[in-house]
Specification:
Blueprint (H helix, E strand, L loop, with lengths): L1 E4 L2 E4 L8 H7 L18 E4 L2 E4 L12 E3 L12 H9 L8 H10 L2 H4 L2 H4 L11 H7 L23 H6 L14 E7 L5 E7 L1 H4 L4 E5 L30 E2 L5 E7 L2 H10 L1 E6 L6 H4 L24 E9 L2 H6 L3 E9 L11 E6 L5 E5 L4 H12 L6 E4 L16 H11 L3 E4 L2 H7 L6 E9 L5 E13 L5 H8 L2 H4 L6 E9 L13 H19 L3 H8 L25 H14 L10 E13 L8 E7 L5 E5 L8 H12 L7 E5 L15 H29 L7 E3 L2 E4 L2 E4 H11 L4 E6 L6 E13 L5 E11 L6 H20 L30 E5 L22 H13 L10 H12 L2
Parallel strand pairs: 1-5, 6-17, 15-16, 19-20, 23-24, 30-31
Antiparallel strand pairs: 1-2, 3-4, 3-5, 6-10, 7-9, 7-11, 8-10, 12-20, 13-18, 14-15, 14-17, 18-19, 21-29, 22-23, 22-28, 25-26, 26-27, 29-30
Helix pairs in contact: 2-3, 2-6, 12-13, 17-24, 20-21
Length: 907
């Protein structure tokens, strides 16, 4: 058969039933991405005779005789297509996984379609950007700057991988071809709780192409946690690579390794698995009640499980002062119970990886991970291999949001590669992402609060029940974080916390953007507004009277013993002022009929810039012979923007252009250690290590040039790609040549240990309209102000805020992983889940406080996680203002709002 792909004849025969997406990828067109396998996300978009189609829905056979254009063929060989250039200029991407499909769709639009972008782009999803930068690209807006050497920091410079992303040349996890590759498919449990009595492999092994079937009998018995942290105390040891007890529907039972995916899938179907059913519990209240089935019997505090007999993974209890007495004497009080749901990360690149053994015996793992170094450490412990015999690395990662701070595939990949000696691949389907990875922790939060007649808080109390699902990955740290900064941001003499996280026989929860704070803030910020309402105090003013100021202790019980969090900079007051002015600046009345009610709402958040108890980053930098620099960092790039910021930091300190900084990253083979890009630490921790390395190298360059001139190093200055002294100048290339002659290494290593830590602040404001008869919500205005210290890259930081607000709006308005009474996920696909599309997301006005953080790299601090946190709380407060009703459960779906609206306003 013959195909016309990107203007060239391609002779190849697709397999029976093969879709166009896999056919194109197998012929080397890696710009065609896999995101859903159901035509829901658009990552696989190609042009068929000039029209955009989802190639995962098109049988390859039917594309014969049609002109197929992938992202690689959109432009001529000598440049970029205008739409590709527009995406570079607007920086219309973050992780970039959706970008190829998005560009092809945008390039195909006519003028009429451009007038209805919500309709035109409904088939292309982006989880990162919030869509504003994509809209900017379509309107020809340029968001990037060109700056002189040494002035990169604080400017809107483009991502270094931009040209590769828009051409489809940036390589993600599976964008490679390996000879002799085997495929892994996982047989999964249909039961919520069961003991595996036996597994008959014979029929599976008889399938042509099946190489091996691996079960718990083949796997190490070592217990570990899929969660990855620098310190082991944070997570329980309750997981095995393959277990003989299953604890949720979808848990992996066996791994079939085969020459093809089809053979591996058939092998899974032919496995005869005999289960002994065990009693299960899906509700966390029931799980911690007397007589409930015990999910992890035998686990002890030594395994970091607080009380296995009550299914309690972790708990936190403490009090400052006397909250009960304070509430009794308060002028006003409020009590309410709030519930938050499971949410899927929905990174468009699913979990997966490749593994192979080198002749030297080194095990290579190429995976979609935020934590390659911590994953290597875990694999070393599980399989008893020296760390130097394991290499874990990632190419560009297609989104993370905390979900890839886990080890869901690398253990199986290692097992399969070690057992078979073959290169292997494991790529999760979208359904597997929903049923077998992790979600946000659903929580029930009861808040009690009081204030005196002047609006000063007298008491704050949180009672929290968190549901970690079947395994305790991130259970404790998420719980502790939820009860931390949400209380610590307010001055109050009496505070109390009683918090528990429970095991249930459901899909595990895990790390998710915000790490527990969005759930608790939903309750705390509602209580602040309710007290203000009773006292007739403006919500902005109520917060000004109670928030911590620079120098105030940030207290929340129980005392965790850490004393390394400081106000590196303080911009919360500015953030409140900025949002208040922005909300007041537009007071025009919307053109809405009488059934629409309008209201404003705000919420604020504070977040520590680094997790506690250590977060390590090692960085190396060296002068090259051409006068450029090689910068080696451990942090992964998954849309968080650290690749751009690292180069900006180094280029500024070394007085060179960012294009002269070559970045190597996220590979354990490069040496050093990096805890990982999570917990808001990518810029704050790893950026400080880059600053340390660059400053050391700058000193060495001055010293080396001074020795050549026989002068004091203090007389030398780095400027415009070289070292100067008056009118004398050595270019960096000249210094490199001289250093080579002298046998001098012009290089340096930098390090950051994650302490001391700072705090970042965000304030979100919404104006909403609510239809009192239907529950429909319209976002009329969205504004967020952020204290990010000295903003390293304003355009990029704005994009992080916009993307965080958009993702959080999805969780606040409609996203929900639905679990039935038996513990089964009932909506494991995008079309039944509702990710925000272009039409769903309002434009958010982003404002920055003017501060410089004394602890962060060149005055910057984190701003990729915290924008998510105050959104649901602010939206809930706006709904309360509009309707007079306090809605206490998210998502705010119309059918959930309707009963209370009907009760108050009638039909």
């Amino acid at each position: 058969m013959s195909y016309l792909v990107n203007g060239k004849e391609l002779s190849a025969a697709p397999r029976p039933g093969q879709c166009l997406r896999t056919f194109l990828r197998e012929t080397g067109h890696f710009g065609v991405k896999k995101g859903c396998d159901a035509g829901d996300c658009g990552a696989c978009t190609v042009l068929l005779d000039g029209e955009p189609v989802h190639s995962c829905l098109i049988p390859a056979l039917r594309a014969e005789g049609h002109a197929i254009t992938t992202i690689e063929g959109l432009a001529s060989d000598d440049g970029l297509h205008p739409m590709q250039q527009a995406f570079v200029d607007a920086q219309g991407f973050q992780c970039g996984f959706c970008t190829a499909g998005m560009i092809l769709t945008c390039a195909s639009l006519n003028q009429a379609q451009r007038q209805e972008l919500g309709v035109a782009l409904k088939g292309n999803l982006c989880r990162c950007t919030g869509y504003r930068a994509i809209e900017d690209a379509l309107h020809g807006i340029c968001n990037i700057e060109n700056v002189p050497a040494g002035e990169a920091f604080g400017r809107s410079l483009p991502a270094p991988a931009g040209p590769q992303i828009v051409r489809g040349e940036a390589r993600y996890t599976f964008d490679t071809a390996i000879d002799g590759l085997c495929h892994i498919k996982l047989a999964r449990s249909p039961h919520a709780h069961a003991k595996i009595v036996g597994i008959n492999k014979a029929a599976a092994l008889a399938v042509p192409g099946v190489v091996a079937v691996l079960t718990h009998e083949d796997a190490p018995a070592t217990l570990f946690s899929t969660a990855r942290h620098e310190k082991a105390w944070m997570d329980p040891d309750d997981t095995r690579v393959l277990d003989d007890v299953v604890r949720f529907i979808g848990q992996k039972v066996a791994a079939v390794v085969a020459e093809s995916e089809a053979a591996a899938e058939e092998g899974c179907r032919r496995l005869a698995i005999n289960y002994k059913l065990l009693p299960a519990v899906a509700d966390p209240v029931e799980a911690i009640s007397p007589g409930a089935p015990i999910i992890h019997p035998g686990r002890t505090p030594q395994d970091r499980v607080a009380n296995a007999g009550r299914n309690i993974v972790a708990e936190s209890h403490g009090e400052y002062g006397d909250v009960a007495a304070a509430l009794t004497t308060s002028a006003v009080t409020y009590e309410g119970t709030f519930t938050t749901q499971r949410v899927q990360h929905a990174a468009l690149e699913t979990h997966g990886g490749l593994a192979w053994l080198e002749p030297s015996g080194v095990l290579n793992i190429r995976s979609s991970t935020q934590v390659p170094f911590l994953t290597r450490r875990a694999l070393s412990d599980i399989f008893g291999l020296p760390a130097e015999k394991i290499r874990v690395f990632c190419e560009r990662v297609g989104g993370g949001f905390g979900g890839k701070q886990e080890m869901f595939v690398e253990d199986v990949l290692a097992l399969a590669a070690l057992k078979t000696g073959r290169p292997v691949k494991l790529e999760f389907t979208r359904e597997e992402q929903f049923i077998a990875t992790s979600t946000r922790h659903p929580m029930r939060v009861t808040v009690r609060a009081g204030a005196d007649k002047d609006g000063k808080l007298t008491g704050l109390q949180l009672d929290v029940l968190s549901n970690t699902g079947a395994y305790g990955n991130h259970a404790g740290p998420v719980l502790f974080h939820a009860c931390g900064e949400s209380l610590g941001v307010y001055n109050c003499p009496n505070k109390k916390v009683d918090a528990v996280v429970a095991y249930t026989n459901t899909v595990p929860s895990g790390a998710f953007r915000g790490y527990g704070l969005p759930q608790s803030l939903f309750a705390v910020e509602a209580a602040i507004d309710e007290l203000a309402h009773q006292l007739k105090i403006d919500p902005f003013e109520m917060r000004r009277r109670n928030v911590v100021k620079s120098g105030d202790p940030m207290l929340y019980p129980p005392d965790n013993g850490y004393r390394d969090v400081f106000y590196g900079s303080y911009g919360l007051d500015q953030c409140l002022d900025l949002v208040e002015r922005a909300m007041a600046a537009d007071i025009s009345k919307p053109d809405l009929s009488a059934e629409w009610l309008t209201g404003d709402g705000i919420a604020l958040t504070m977040i520590d810039t680094v997790p506690p108890d250590g977060h390590i980053a090692d960085v190396a930098i060296a002068l090259r012979e051409d006068g450029g620099f090689d910068l080696t960092v451990g942090t992964a790039e998954f849309g968080n923007g650290t690749s751009t910021v690292h180069r900006q930091i180094a280029a500024t300190i070394l007085a060179t252009a960012v294009d002269h900084i070559s970045l190597r990253q996220s590979d354990t083979a490069h040496g050093g250690h990096d805890t990982g890009a999570y917990g808001s630490a990518g810029t704050f921790v790893a950026g400080r290590a880059t600053q340390d390395a660059a400053e050391q190298l700058a000193d060495r360059l001055r010293t080396f040039a001074a020795r050549l001139w026989a002068v004091d190093p203090d007389a030398c200055t780095l400027a415009d790609g070289g070292v100067t002294r008056g009118r004398q100048r050595f270019s960096f290339a000249e210094l490199a040549k001289q250093a080579k002659t002298d046998g001098t290494a012009l290089a340096a290593n930098g390090n950051s240990r994650g302490t001391p830590r700072s705090v970042a602040f965000n304030v979100q404001g919404f104006r909403v309209a609510v239809n009192k008869h239907t529950g429909e919500i319209k976002i009329l205005k969205s504004v967020q102000a952020a204290d990010a210290g000295r903003v390293a890259n304003p355009m990029q930081c704005r994009g992080q805020v916009e993307g965080g607000v958009a993702q959080s709006l999805g969780a606040a308005l409609y996203e929900e992983v639905v679990i039935d009474a038996n513990g089964r996920v009932v909506n494991p696909k995008f079309r039944d889940y509702h990710l925000p599309s272009f039409a769903d997301v309002p434009r958010t006005e982003v404002l920055f406080a003017e501060t410089t953080d004394a602890l962060g790299p060149l005055g910057a601090k984190s701003m990729s996680e915290s924008p998510y946190n105050p959104v649901a709380a602010a939206l809930g407060n706006a709904l309360r203002k509009a309707t007079g009703i306090r809605f206490t459960a998210v998502p705010f779906k119309p059918d959930r709002l309707f009963p209370l609206l009907q009760e108050k306003f009638g039909g």
